[in-house]
Amino acid sequence: SDPAESSAETKNSVSYAWPVSQTPNWISPISSAGHTSTINASLNQVLWTPLIEFNTSGGSMGWDKEASLAKSVEFSPDGRVATITLKDMSWSDGVPVTSRDVEFWLNLIKANKENWANYVDGRMPDIIKKFEAVNSSTFKLTFDDVYNQDWLKSNQLSFIQPIPQHAWDKKSDSGAVGNYDRTESGAKKVFEYIQSEAKDMASYDTNPLWKTTNGPYKIDTFTSSGKVVLAKNKKYDGTDAAHIETVKLLPFTSVEAEQNALRSGELDYGYITASAMAQKETFEASGYKITPKPGWSITYMPYNFNNPKMGDVFSQLYVRQAIQHSIDQKSISEVIWQGTAEPGYGPIPQGSDSPYLSEVQKNNPYPYSIDKAKKLLTSHGWKMGSDGVAVCSSVGTGENECGEGIEKGTRLEIKLLAQSGSTETDNMMNEIRSSLSKAGIKLDVKSAPVNSVLSQTPRCKPSQKQCDWQLSFFGTSGSWYFPPYPTGERIFGTDGPSNFGHYSNPKADRLMQKAVSSKDSSAMVKYSALLAKDLPVVWMPNPVYQVSATREGLKGTAADVDEIYPQRWHWETQK
Amino acid sequence: METFRFILKRVGQSVVVVFLVTIVVFALLHLLPGGPARGILGVQATPEQIAAFKEKRGLDEPLVIQYLEYLGRLLQGDLGRSYVLNAPVADLIIDRLPKTLLLSVLSAAVGLMIALPLGIWQAYKRNRPSDYVLTSLSFVAYATPVFFVGLILIIVFTQWLSWFPPLAPRGDSIADILSDPQALVLPVTTAALGIIALFSRYMRASTLDNLSEDYVRTAAAKGTSEGQILARHVFRNSLTSITTMLGYYIPVLFAGSLVVEQLFNYPGMGLLFWNAAQAPDFPVLLGCVLIISIATVIGSLLADLVQVFIDPRVRHSS
Amino acid sequence: MSEAQIEVSRRGGAPDGMAAPVSNRMLMWKRFMRNKIAVVGAVVVVLAFAFAFLGPLIYQTDQVHVQLSAANEAPSANHWLGTDAVGFDQLGRMMVGGQVSLTIGLAAGVLATVIGALWGSVAGYTGGWVDAIMMRIVDSGIAIPALFILLVISAIVSPNSLTMILVIGCLAWLVPSRLVRAETLTLKSRDYVLTLRGIGGGHWRVVSRHIVPNTISTLVVNATFQIADAILLVAYVSYLGMGVQAPATDWGGMLSAGLSAAYSGFWWLIIPPGVAIILVVCAFNAIGDGLRDMFDVKGR
Amino acid sequence: MTSTTLATEAALKIDDLNVAFTAESGTVPAVEGVSLQVAPGEVLALVGESGSGKSTVALTAMGLLPSNAQMTGNVSVAGSTIDVPDGRSLNKIRGRVVSMVFQEPASALNPLKRIGDQIAEVITNHTDVPAREAKARAVTLLDRVGIADPEQRIRDYPFQLSGGQRQRVVIAIAIANDPALLIADEPTTALDVTVQAEILDLLRSLASGTNTAVLLVTHNMGVVADFAERVAVMLKGELVESGQVNDVLLHPQHEYTRRLLKAVPRLRVTTDEPDPENTNTESAVSASEHIALEFENVSVTYGRGRRRFEALKSVSFQLPQSATLGLVGESGSGKSTTGRAAIGLLKPSAGSVRLFNRDLRSLPWRTRRKFQAQIGIVLQDPVASLDPRMSVMDCVAEPLMTHRRLSGTERRQKVASLLDSVHLPAGVIRRFPHELSGGQRQRVSMARALILEPRLLIADEATSALDVSVQASVLSVLTELQQTYGFACLFISHDLAVVQQMSQTVAVMRRGEIVESGPTGSVLVNPEVEYTRELLSAAPVPDPVVQKQRRRTVEVGGSVGQ
Lengths: 575, 318, 300, 562
Ligand SMILES: Nc1ncnc2c1ncn2[C@@H]1O[C@H](COP(=O)(O)OP(=O)(O)OP(=O)(O)O)[C@@H](O)[C@H]1O
Ligand SMILES: Nc1ncnc2c1ncn2[C@@H]1O[C@H](COP(=O)(O)OP(=O)(O)OP(=O)(O)O)[C@@H](O)[C@H]1O
Ligand SMILES: [Mg+2]
Ligand SMILES: [Mg+2]
Prior knowledge:
B: 0% strand; binds magnesium ion
């Protein structure tokens, strides 16, 4: 296509590529299990302004006030009550956004918490004992306990999503709007009605329900193949108005196809793979800016401490240390990920600076050293076998013996189930296998699609058949994405639902509890140092969420990481 | 009457085959380790959500019950709802199938339009230099993996020559897609190359077989020229064996379409299937496999019917 | 085509007492050698095997330990074909990959043919209900996308050479089974079979002495095509991310890994495996063609 | 080149023709120095044993030699030179000046085209007529070759016609443009005797009606006697004798012609004619009360449901030990079915088959095998009877392997002695079937059938694929062996003369039933049933004088033809 013509046209529009093979499939601002992809969240955030939005637009993770509906959040001195004031905004039909809309959401969620994808026992909405509307734009939330306020704001209150009570508080399409949400049974019916409307994707761009919005954009077209066209919401009266008239969000079936589209200039905003970083210059020469976008995430491989064969071996800290010493995170990040991954040495995301990061984690307690790894093993009663695999030769729990539960003749042979479909991951596993083998540890890698890896990495008891997994990797684009306040009780807590390998450390449990329930955030730093040393998992380089390619002149993409903020995008005026 | 009975019998066989397919596929699905719940709900899902997911989809029931329930729904025309895509499987298939069909039919048509004359030409010029060259070319085309062919075509025709766009048409309806013929060239060519390679070989062999038949000699004795013998007699007779091959080629065409769809950003059945398999999205997987197997069965049924049409003997001798 | 080329079928036997002047083997050999493309194919296959299996004796490389410091190097005196994304010597990798591709192709092709032969001959020879059921199973097998079965199996077993052989062998037997069944159906009503049955010859004798030997030529021809197809299938499987696990590799895996670097100019990662696959697959197909001429059977 | 046909000119003129084929095994000279002429309106029969080059001569006249043939000499048809490389002009001649009728009516027509179109094609090839006109002419032609209801029939496909009808269609194609020369290469060998007679009649009337010259290639001396005016005899690519039919057939000059004629089995048509050939004495019939094979109201059905077809309907007969029963009848009458039922390959739907007084099917497996070992089987097709992948040794030894445990040397001795008794040189033992001639193969089959010294031999069309001379030698071996071993023989054949020569009793079958049976001498000479009479009169006798006489009586009776 003619470049002159396209640049004239793109002034008022942007075409953006959804992540590969992903399409939006859930419009309702109330999330539903199985439909929680970040691109659904992006779309939601653009259509319905969230109460409190957190992102990295300010350079580090923080409250993005422009994108939020809340003007202020104030905690009572005892920390049990929060008073929240809303901005003066209105719905697309002109009705003002009020405290009632917050109450509406809260009522629906309370009555249907098990059907709300973000629900975790003992968290939102259980922590809210009382809702009280002070006036139409101010309300008070009373909590059941004292919590860390950072945590409350960023991880809990940020879930609150005011929705148009005046339009949605009904039980059917033709039903009258009432105050049904105020009874439990009514709230159930309303919830069911809204969510069932969301099951009809074909009506996403026509259903009047979804037309009552208050975000900077509205949906123009939505096709089942995943192509979404956003149009500027002319009635938007918030602080985060859109610049560009039309935003086209396009689905892609493969990275190759997407990169080809970039190469031929069909996209304004896309992404490239890490290995395509080798062609950075080519892309830059054809008018793109290449920016790696690190996610607020960590990447790791959980050990299965309950594995009947290797559980006892993994329980030995020196073994975990030896493994960690064998992982050359620097080279992997630089060569395999072409500099787009960030080495990670502990439980706190390291991509951007954060107050929670300990010095211990930052400075990598277990730098790459095959010699150290080998020495750790040999000094604990392991002998290198003729095939290069270490074998436990002195049994016992003494200083220089293998340790509890490890039998004589045990071979250091580990099965790893790794995510497939990425050259970078394949190469990384190849490298890790190779380094471990130099240290006397044999790694058998089997790869499978990420979902299959997850399915085969369950929390399990040693007696169960599905407990035969030993080491697992599902982090091609990061293993765990944190809410803004990066507590790890769900992955490293003894009973954490996503603590697949049953890591258990009472000290860590206590620190994590403290990080949530005390006003003081220093527990997070201690927790960072403890886990960086105790190695609950194999720490791995954290790949970026994506390497963005933006057309020269397209500005305002800084806040976009996993979620996008198209309202911030704009074309540079003089060009 | 005989034809009718023949068709009836073949349809009966086809139903048995499709039934067998559902059993096999259902059984195989449950060999997949771990089940679908955790994979679909993601790393962050809670055990409660996983349990709810399983219960809601009946995944905690015995396999036989699950199968019978599935069959029951299937007989009512209900293919179920995708675990992942928030849409009924039937809708998904109705949306994607026409696209894949369009691509497959176009590439099969283009491929055959080239392959058949090419095969005849090779038989005509057999064991001459032009036959050797074409044979070698068709070997090479056959031996080149589709993903490689596609890449080469993209590099040459979009990067070097800029003749065609690297992406297939984006339209949602058949009409939209057809209105962008330039974007169809590369995907169709990629898919057609394999067909050309394979079917020109078949056609060559089939033509040679027919050329050695007695009726060709009779035709020559009538004073019919070579060209006319090929056109009037051999071509049609050679088609009978080609149609059978075509019927069985449908699954291969489908497998090829997966690669083409990925390479050229064309969301069709192949991709639907592939993504469902990664999830694993059981209802979609089952639906896709069912549709593909029905397509294959219908394909070979059609091939048989075409045979009946081309070859009057089949009506009576089967 | 000249007039005379329209072949006139030959019939009528040689007169009494006349013997064939040239021995059978010589004749078949001559027929094969006359098919130039097939001869070239045979040479290519021999060279490919020599390259993959004898090459490492001459050109020794470490194909177990990666060397990230030497990744993606262009061809040089040290690395004749450069290095790949983790620093393996590409030429050495071609040899290792060739071993896997060729072994899997050969073994899977043969396995598919053997399974197909057994299945098809039992179905065809037994006939009746057994045949009907067995053939419906084959039809179902053909109707289920191979991709699906592949996916399930590779999720269950860890892909290595042996499992790949089994998987591909179990996928590809359907076509030969149909061929053999058709052949068996005609063979079992041949006069010599009827004669043997009439004088009380058992089924085993009929199958082992007459059916099997007479389908061999069809099978051998089909096996070569199966081998070619299996090598291609291995490539597809690797492309789809279900190939053998590192440090093992195959040409298909190398090719698809190389493709991601297509625009980075690392041609040495793409051309060698691509050409190797095409050459070998072509070669096996050509051999099949030659064998078909040699046995003069209709196959595929 | 395409000069107009002069009435005085020979329709076919072949001058010093040499044809050689380059085959894989070397160059095969097929025709050497053949010269012959056929005048307009004349019928020339070309006879000779298989492989003598008859077809090659015929194909040369059409310019249809395969690409591996080299030809020298001159061939001209009605003044036009036939020159192989010149394809274009040949297309103008073929089908118009010279036409050909091929041997195999089953495959000579395109199976997928309506016969009307196939006939019309030859018309439109040579004349500029509209399609409708061509079709109308096709109808006329079909009518002319004696196919009833031609308007309907032109819409038929070849498979909807019987063999005889198909051959008529081929003839219709051949005569469509009133060619100067009609070449018929074995036009009737694949057909039933009754049909054969009809086809020959048709050809005769067409030729005499239009002054068309006919070159008839055949090995059937009866046909020659019946049909030709002149005859040419070929031997190993050379023309050894030619002349008027009466002269050649009654007073053959060349040694080979004499041998050939002697080998031709003759059907005795009158009681007073002596019977020199039949060496089996009729006394054998009464001598034996031991019954080797007995059919008692045997019915056999093929297929199930609507496709159910009763191939045998309550057939009963007895075959005593050491005797020969001839089974004759037209194609599809159930002869082979009878044979298969006899050896237990088919299960009767009613009645019982008793071998050596036992119903084999009711016996336990082991005993049944013991009885099956006493059966010898020789089937029709010498090619299909032997496994192409087994050596002669293995073929012959196969029954031994199934039934007796013998050491290798014993086995080899046994095989060698059997091969000797069927007059095969010991050298063939290591050869493979394709390295043998048809006659040799059939003798191998016979050796195999006899190696277990059976008490019953089933011979289903055991010699019909063979040349007359080869057939004669195979038949004499068979007779000789029967005298040596004394087995009973069920001799199935459609050749009445052969049956007459071989068997003491004969059964005539028609549509699954035995319509007449009794001693050969009476049934085949003084038939009581009309059908038998038809069969007999349709079989031509290789004696021009006798044959002409028979024809006259038949024409008076008017029972031949439709
Ligand atoms: N296409 C061919 N290639 C090689 N040899 C051939 C070919 N056609 C015929 N011959 C050989 O030429 C010789 C004459 O064959 P031809 O068919 O003319 O014999 P024929 O007298 O018609 O025999 P029959 O009675 O069996 O039809 C035979 O030895 C035959 O094997
Ligand atoms: N397997 C079969 N299934 C169905 N019908 C059959 C089968 N075999 C033979 N028939 C039919 O049975 C009838 C008798 O066949 P049979 O082979 O016994 O005839 P025949 O007298 O030997 O004929 P020919 O002289 O042609 O060999 C024919 O009409 C034939 O079509
Ligand atoms: Mg002949
Ligand atoms: Mg018969």
